Amino acid sequence: MHTSSSLRNSATAPVNQIQEAISDNYVIIFSKTFCSYTTMVNMLLHDMNVNYKVVGFDMLEYRSQIQDVFYKVTSERSVLKIFVNGTFIESTIDTYRLHREEKLLLLFHQYYFFKFRHD
């Protein structure tokens, strides 16, 4: 299941907004509204029955500042950003590679095991 959302449209501390969104969501995708790569990742996560959140980057008022923050965090200016448990996954190709190698599922299992064991 996935939810769509946006960050608060506030110029104050885009870094904090991004960090909050990443820490509050085990799987979060920052993308443009219409992006074929995002669609591919959405389909994969849906098929894996993973809960995740999508933030429509192109709907954000302060996207230039937020893109600068992403560049500092990931060293990339591209818009599609996938984070799993706070870890940046480089690309759609890397997401599918991790899935093929069964490492993506392992990331999800580690999270759910830790979460439910400590709740």
Automatic annotation (TrEMBL):
Q: What InterPro entries does the annotation carry?
A: Glutaredoxin, Thioredoxin-like_sf
Q: Which UniProt keywords apply?
A: Disulfide bond, Electron transport, Redox-active center, Transport
UniProt cross-references to PROSITE patterns, sorted A to Z: GLUTAREDOXIN_2
User: Which GO terms fall under molecular function for this chain's record?
Assistant: protein-disulfide reductase activity
This entry carries the following GO cellular component terms, namely: mitochondrion
Which segments constitute the Glutaredoxin domain? 27-89
> Which SUPFAM superfamilies does this UniProt record tie to the protein?
Thioredoxin-like
Q: Does the keyword Nucleus apply?
A: no
Q: Which domain of life is it from?
A: Eukaryota
Assigned protein family: Belongs to the glutaredoxin family.
- Protein name listed in UniProt: Glutaredoxin domain-containing protein
Where does this protein come from, organism-wise? Bos mutus grunniens
